[in-house]
Amino acid sequence: MEKGNKKIIRGWVSYDWANSVYNLVISSAIFPIFFEKATTNAYINRLYNDGSPGFDPSTISVRTEDVTSFFFGIEITSSVLYTYVLAASFLVVSFLSPLLSGIADYSGKKKSFMRFFCYLGGVSCIGLYFFDPNNMGVSMIPFFLASIGFWSSLVFYNSFLPEISEPNDHDRISAKGFSMGYIGGMVLLIICLIWNMVLEYDIRYCFIFVGIWWVSFSQIAYRVLPDNIYNRKKERGIIWKGFDELKIVFKEFKKTKRLKRFITSFFFFNTGVQTVMLMATLYASREIFKIPEEIRSSLTHEEIVAKEGEGTAGLIIAILLIQILGAVGAFFISRLSGKIGNMKTLTIAVGFWIPLCIFAYFIGQGEHGQF
């Protein structure tokens, strides 16, 4: 196959535009806020609603860390349940990815696996429309599957890059993909904000938008990405062949000291980065944009609603600004990497990342819980 084909590269980049809406709308911006509000209201209704007509959960204040939900009959703190489900999805991906990657490499069906997980993620996002905080056992299943679909599809998506481009173009093309992803996510997020805050329609429709956007725009990539470029023949026992591929890779892994160091380092690096990315919105909504109890008690119901709306709007604006910085930063980091190398660039980035994470811990720890 010809490497560097512009049409194929544009198709590859388009998948970032397609799937990054999940990462922004579901993982970072709208769903975490929706999840916290929905579970809090359900918790208040469960404890304080005596059946009086016109009961309004927003008139009652509870600490978010006290909010619990019932998950298959087990009472658990809602935020803890959120993190457990995410962690479980990552665990499934970590077990499935090596096996499925081996099968895909042996069978030449890489694009088929990528498409399957894309559709799984997209349909699961649509399923979040039916989220019911009073039935968390069923409601968290689409959230769990959407996470598996997104991260598993990325495994196969990323593996296409060495096949469609030369090594010296990887940084530039990857940066372009990241930037398109940031911009695509931002476009749909703005649409969702207009839908909910301006037109005042149900926010849950945004989860449907994510699924449709993801699946629809991914078709651009599927039309041009190659499939079975090594002309693998169909054979029986393909699952066992996948295990054989894993054994070969594992043997090479044991022999290569540098690879072992890289995998170990990547584990800690990726775990830290993903934890911050996935939990940042819940942290910000509780520690930075929340109304302190001593101030909340002195406000009227209307003032509380107004301030909470301002806080949510401020959080969404902050996320949008981060998207813009991310799009610009992807190109900047790519250029810097081209001049000083990937290792030095990564060291500089992590050198900024770690102090910022430590600094973020102290946000909200000042007077009145505000920075």
Walk me through the structure:
The protein has one domain (6-369). Helix content is 76%, strand content 2%. The chain has helices at 6-48, 78-107, 110-127, 136-159, 161-164, 170-198, 205-224, 238-255, 257-287, 293-296, 301-340, 342-361, and strands at 68-71, 74-77. A two-stranded antiparallel sheet has the order 1-2. Helix 2 runs antiparallel to helix 3 (110-127), helix 2 packs across helix 8 and helix 11 runs antiparallel to helix 12. The chain starts with 5 loop residues before the first helix and ends in a 10-residue tail after the last helix.
Order of helices and strands: HEEHHHHHHHHHHH
The shape is: globular
Mean pLDDT: 84
- The spatial strand order of the largest sheet comes to 1-2
Which class do the helix and strand fractions yield? mainly alpha
Into how many domains do the coordinates divide?
A: 1
Q: Please indicate the percent range of residues in DSSP E strands (runs of 2 or more).
A: under 5%
- Determine Rg (CA atoms, Å): 23 Å
Count of helical segments? 12
Main sheet? 2 strands, antiparallel
User: What is the number of strand segments?
Assistant: 2
List low-pLDDT spans. 365-371
Helix content: over 70%
Distance between the termini: 55 Å
